[in-house]
């Protein structure tokens, strides 16, 4: 009988791979089972292919802007198939890098679906391809899946998975249903690449959990870039027709080549197929494994991290924590605690997040609404301006920046931005917020001129 694994990781995505490698580094005997491709959502059908396509889409505006600077750019055309081929090649390369990293760390990889068959006092039996493996501990890191609503014809819809993975033929027109960050990013990519794009969503504004000023500024900017926004609309059915689909909506029919559903992601059914029920592991209503601050589930020695978990009980809104760096940080923290007696804490309060739309939006810390709800008496600093790039292009583009400050302590609680390079700028500010920076320290910071970022340290008068 083979020696049991110290840790059996189910899911070779961002969190699973990070935990497995760190655990192996500390001498643990580790296995990873991956049902699809190692790298997981982020590498195969999420962050990475999305960002590559975002870059492709961004050139549209840059080519346009170049004319204001004396460039004669004529005959610019985009080749969709070439982009998809280049993107897929890069994803294959990265998948290979991940495989090598696992191999080099001495982790045993099972390239198949895994299921927990049972637990006894000695550990767990995990079944992969009809063979049982014994492990002292199990980490569930199976991620989440796009959720499709139960309307007639929903089988004719695709999700971000098909846009970002594989070879979707270039559509001429697309309806994106849902207005979370993935919907906004997909719509921005498509419109940037010259595809007629409509976004339909139930709410008045996209990005439910973000700061209201950010939501308003981004909605305005995205509409100017050509995405047709249809707020307050419900899709009742999807009917297939030759070459496309017709959406039956609360505002009448809409004919498009493709409909992309981006109405949220949930851990179910990934967690439902693992055999957790029979072990009595507690899941929340979305199928997320409920874990304590040490990422341990209601069953001892069974852990969960990343998108398939409730992120150590960090509130019901686990969606705002479903990010690659969070899954990685949780995975490493778990490995450090289990195999290096090193208690590492994840800084959940200052997780920066970006929307790679056109333009970008990004934030760290609390929105004005959340800060007020949490009982803070806040001062608001906000600026809107035409970015310098567009002084010569004549384009009607606005950047928005906002600080939410606690009046009592002077601490900066939140930074929000809509505009080019928002993600790059907010990452730096996340360090300041994690260090507990005050508004006085922002004011004392010398500006870097000329930049957009300097506005974050030169907002002197509160607007509210
Ligand atoms: C379109 C899109 C864009 C995104 N953009 C960003 C971004 O810009 N920035 C960011 O930080 N995050 C982004 N994310 C989120 C990010 O991808 C996830 O938060 C991250 O991948 C979560 O890591 P994870 O390890 O929890 O799960 P995953 O990366 O999803 O990995 C889970 C793995 O488990 C495997 N699996 C499932 N069941 C089994 C089983 N029974 N046996 C074996 N293997 C199994 C799956 O195949 C999968 O590979 C994006 C997500 C999407 C969908």
What global shape is seen? globular
Number of strands: 23
- Biggest beta sheet summary: 5 strands, parallel
What is bound: which ligands?
A: flavin-adenine dinucleotide
Structural class: alpha/beta
* Radius of gyration over C-alpha positions, nearest whole angstrom: 23 Å
Strand order of the largest sheet: 3-2-1-7-18
Low-confidence stretches: none
For the record, give the distance between the C-alpha atoms at the N and C termini, rounded to a whole number: 69 Å
- What's the overall average pLDDT, rounded? 96
The total count of helices amounts to: 12
Strand content: 15-25%
Estimate percent helicity: 25-40%
Descriptive labels:
single chain; 464 residues; alpha/beta; five-stranded parallel sheet; 12 helices; 30% helix; globular; binds flavin-adenine dinucleotide
Structure, explained:
With 464 residues, the protein is α/β, with parallel strands linked by helices. It has helices at residues 14-25, 40-45, 47-66, 80-104, 160-164, 181-192, 212-224, 276-279, 324-340, 368-373, 422-434, 439-444; strands at 7-10, 30-33, 108-110, 114-120, 123-128, 131-135, 138-140, 145-146, 158-159, 173-177, 196-200, 228-230, 235-241, 244-249, 252-256, 258-261, 265-266, 302-304, 353-355, 361-365, 378-385, 399-406, 412-418. The strands form six sheets. It has a five-stranded parallel sheet, with helices on one face. Strands 9-16-10-11-12 form a five-stranded parallel sheet. Strand 14 (244-249) and strand 15 form a beta hairpin. Helix 1 (14-25) runs parallel beside helix 9 and helix 3 (47-66) runs antiparallel to helix 4. The longest helix has 25 residues, at 80-104. The termini are far apart. Bound molecules: flavin-adenine dinucleotide (FAD). Flavin-adenine dinucleotide (FAD) is lined by residues 10-16, 33-36, 40-42, 46-47, 50, 113-114, 141-143, 160, 164, 182, 270, 273-274, 306-308, 322-325, 327, 356. Flavin-adenine dinucleotide binds at residues 10-16, 33-36, 40-42, 46-47, 50, 113-114, 141-143, 160, 164, 182, 270, 273-274, 306-308, 322-325, 327, 356.
